[in-house]
Amino acid sequence: MGVYDFTVTTATGDLQPLESYRGEVLLIVNTASKCGFTPQYKGLQQLYEEFHDQGFRVLGFPCNQFASQEPGTNEEIQQFCQTNYQVTFPVFAKIDVNGASADPLYKYLTQSAPGVLGTEAIKWNFTKFLIDRTGNVVKRFAPNTTPESIHDAILLLLSKPA
């Protein structure tokens, strides 16, 4: 089992198989519009713009499980991301990342790359998972890890063939 085995829901309600990203380096992030880390959208967009042509994608998954910091509808979230941060990478439908209702993709990600002391639960918004070109989870980054600080790890994965 790997990342490509999952299908997610777009902000417009369509199903999107992650298989369509096969061969690309992915950074999967749970996001929120009203969080202290929300300005990370800017850094995520910069990474996306810099590496997009080399086969890199950022995939955003809004989540309202942390202090209700993502209260908007999928449409409102899209508008917020585009208006405030000019986001052009995909921001999918709002999901849960923890608990019984956690999206299957996030159950897989947290099992594949546990956090500090082996905990699987996502601690907060903007936890990041770096995925290599073959769909393997390479590393989990804490919410306070800035997108800019992941630059070299992405560059390294992009330099490796699928």
From TrEMBL:
One of its GO terms (molecular function) is peroxidase activity. It holds the Pfam family GSHPx. The active site is at C35. One of its GO terms (biological process) is cellular response to oxidative stress. SUPFAM superfamilies: Thioredoxin-like. Keywords: Oxidoreductase, Peroxidase. It comes from the Bacteria. Gene3D superfamilies: Glutaredoxin. Belongs to the glutathione peroxidase family. This is Glutathione peroxidase. It comes from Alicyclobacillus mengziensis.
